[in-house]
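Notebook entry, structure prediction.
Reason for the run: the old model in the group folder had no record of what sequence produced it. Starting over properly, with the input documented here first.
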Amino acid sequence: AVDFGWHFPAVGMTVWVGVGFLLVQPNVSSRPSRFFERATSGVVLVVSLLLLVRGLTLFVATAASDRAQLLQRRGDIAGAQLAWRQAVKFDPQPTSSRAIGWNAYGDRSNPNWASEAQAAADQAQRWGRDDYFVAHLLGRIAYAQKDYPVAEAQLRRAVSLDPLFHVSFQHDLAFVMRDQGRLNEAVALLQFTLEQADQETYSQNPTRSSDLAYVAEALGQFQLQQGDAPAARAAFERALHYVPDYRPALDDLASLK
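New structure, fully documented this time:
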């Protein structure tokens, strides 16, 4: 894809050079002063060089990002982290910092996981303040540290920023409520989430059906905690409606027999 702007410096540089070429051409009626010609040429040269440098840094950052994704898929998280950090160094994008944060969050064997994940999430938020995935990460970090007010605030923010992914966000929010002793609110939220998803054809997307199975299974677990086994059974069966071989729901139903 080709577009104009800072992220496509080759196009921008071409425009700058063209404009500069036109500006420094002699004018038949009134030739510009030698100072103006040199100043204009100098500005065009400097801007062109800056755009060229930017293009090179973007090239390096893109290569590092591609390498990070490949290593991530191979399960080499340590290598992916190094590649993501290189990508951030050359092009500070929220996506790369977010990946660093999630990898740090998932590595609980690292005693500094929380501070590293928080630092990466804060950095990503500076570059993408309205990034709902960053808000989700911040909520998960706070929840893991039992900072429930912050976790709830960040997860609610994630939902408000982009409702498209609200299923997983509201699932996590329900656990925050449950752990604060608000079990009834948590159950109501999960029920609302499933009803809303069905109305929005979210459940018809095969790539999202696992999210709904996850929510339905959590709903059944919460309803068991309420002592409502029939409702829990229905929730587990609903999870299997979304994903027929969803193992947690199969195990839950077997335990009810």
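Summary: The longest helix spans residues 34-74.
The old model has been moved to the deprecated folder.
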